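2024-03-11 09:14:02 INFO receiving multi-entity request
2024-03-11 09:14:02 INFO entity count = two
2024-03-11 09:14:03 INFO echoing inputs for audit
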Amino acid sequence: MIESTDIADTLVEAVIGAAEARAPLCIVGGNSKQLLAGRHCDATPLQVGGHRGIVDYTPEELVITARAGTPIAEIESTLSAEGQTLASEPPRYDGAGTLGGTLACNLSGPARPWSGALRDAVLGLRLIDGRGQHLRFGGRVMKNVAGYDVSRLQAGALGTLGVITEVSLKVMPRSEFTTTLAFALPAAQAIDTMNRRAAVPSPLNGALWHAGRLFLRLSGAQSAVAQCAREWGGEPVSAQDAPWESLREMPEALFDQAQNQPLPLYRLSVGSASSLGDLDERCIIDWCGALRWLPSEQALSSVHAIAAANGGHASLFRGGDRSGEVRAPLAPAQQGVQQRLKQAFDPGAIFNPGRLYSWL
Amino acid sequence: MTGRSAISAQHRALLTERLLACLGKDNIVLDVESQRPWECDALPLYRDLPLLVALPATVAQVKTVLQVCHEFDVPVVARGAGTGVTAGSMPHPEGVLLSLSRLDRILDIDPLARTARVETGVSNLAISAAAAQYGLYYAPDPSSQIACSIGGNVAANSGGVHCLKYGLTTHNLLAIKALTVEGEELALGSAGLDSPGYDLMALMTGSEGLLAVVTEVTVKLLPVPQAAKLVLAGFDSVRAASDAVGAIIAAGIIPAGLEMLDRLTIQAVEDYVNAGYPRDAEAVLLCELDGTEEEVAEHTATVSALLGELGASTLHVARDEAERALLWKGRKAAFPAVGRLAPDYYCMDGTIPRAQLAHVLEQIALLSKEYALPVANVFHAGDGNLHPLILFDAGNPEEIRKAEAFGARILTLSVEVGGSITGEHGVGLEKIRQMPAQFGEAELLLFEEIKAAFDPALNLNPGKGIPILKRCQEYRALPARHRHD
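2024-03-11 09:21:47 INFO inference complete, emitting structure
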């Protein structure tokens, strides 16, 4: 039985109090991502984890609405009972990861290039802004273009624009059948192969390279998966030995953890077919090439320069100096717009100060 | 209609002189008669003429137009192909109409990374045509795709018949370049699948030209599906057809397209193009399944069996590509076919939860009697996105009034059952009065603040998309041009 508690009124009061006192808040869901994705944030915690439970779920509508503190794992088990799933495969972090926090960080698993991010599945949400107003954007329908897409704007905003209290998501039927194929290949050849495979019709929905092996995951109607597996060959990998679960929860677990002190982990978002040269051999290459995890002691600026040369950007995902910037700098015009947007949502600058950027 | 400009003749002459110097006389349209092609979009109920039409041929010229307009503090209305149906790109009488149709170059197609980088004026279909040689295509396919521009698609977050499975414009973009109202460049998104900071690309998509002017778009391309099959099912009642829609989805199948046509539309389509729909049916469902050969065969069998069990009076799988194309032709010709039944039609765009389909269609039928105006329904059933076509005569002012009132009732009904006033067409000028039915004052004020974060003087497409509340007009001391109440 899933716990259901509505503490929205308490949250609104807390925000109004903080706004009046000009006392910043650090928004906490399940406390699973405090040490990753963003900068260190020093403020009074606002506990959202108690605001939980599924508000509405109608399988034939493909829509679920849940309070922000609901663990992703609970949402998944509810969907699973109806043969449905969150197509973006967000991490569950041992049951601690919540819906609100996962959307705020916009974390997605290996299916992301084919099935979209959590960002893509958002249909609407409720949000407490910096004035303590409990607002509603989007809805529970598949298409809605009235007003600005404030719901999707929360994806990746790390809670700096407001307290997400409730989210409606599009969900998908779970794939009938899944299989994994492995191929021994160097990184450069694997990047080429995964992109070539993605350019032809197939049930492909996972492509990873790590430590000399390319893994391709096929998922869909059984007949289609079987036919494709026959055509592509490779070595079949059992569900237990397939890397997708580790990749979804904690990609660095795939690295050889021989070192006592693990290196800071960088996340490079780049063009899927781009080559980072020799560096690729040291990466975990996910998202069909569009996401590369790199352990490195180098500064953000030098890692970012490599990503930028390939059309993308880098961020310091875990470890390293989290009091400095952990994301790539923005051009002045864009930075200005972002600062004014923050001001529009949170005029007293009370939400997660400095978590996304030092200047937000 | 609004009268000609309130801007002083001297100010106007100076602005014109500056733009002529920057763009050359071939890229500026000044006289009223030559401006007629730009006076409205595809909703001719609303029309107006701008101070001038600017037709820049390069991004640098777009930038110049924006800089000059900013300096003169005049409104700018960006326009793609003008295929919108909400008067979203209707000119502003005191402003410049910025036509982006000459920015129509395909800049780069990367078949390995499966991306296309194009200028804003390139048509939706031209992207798929250019990608076809690599076995790739651009998925969102609004019915105006032969003409509509990708920049306009971004402004509207356009959908199409395949968006239940393949998503809207917002799901198929990688990056956009835009110019702010001051003419400064914003590079949003990236070659990867996300970008640092706030997701401004999400905010720009569907913003109806109110936040910035899109100049370049990088889209994702998908492999052309190996196979596609179209299942046609006729039903004796709209309710039975509506229930079948939910049943297909509940069976775990996401069709590439799932469309419904009601009796009036079926008759109109058959009279117009002879698509082969069953004339005796109250409703027809078109269900397209695509994917690999094996997948399509499996899903076609499942869907056919399901529709049979649900009491379809006609059940037919298109024999070949020619018949599939003909059945789709009927759907795509539905608007012009219905258009032959009356002097004019007014197309609504509400979206509702699928479970409410039968209820809402029955309510629309009752409203049709109340207003004594016929209505034809043809819509994206899989998405719950309705397109009721209200038939009327625009030559009769009383009928215009009734059609607008009828339309407003349909939109209110959509919101009441948990839906939206617009699923894919946008708000524009047409639905701006219905925005308060969907949003409270606090949400509308935040929209206004978002607008101001990009465009503090509210000069980009003023009067469209989001209502500027009276309170805000006073607070910002805005000129009367921003009012629309």
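2024-03-11 09:21:48 INFO post-check: Residues 230 and 288 of chain B are 4 Å apart (CA to CA).
2024-03-11 09:21:48 INFO post-check: The longest helix of chain B spans residues 397-416.
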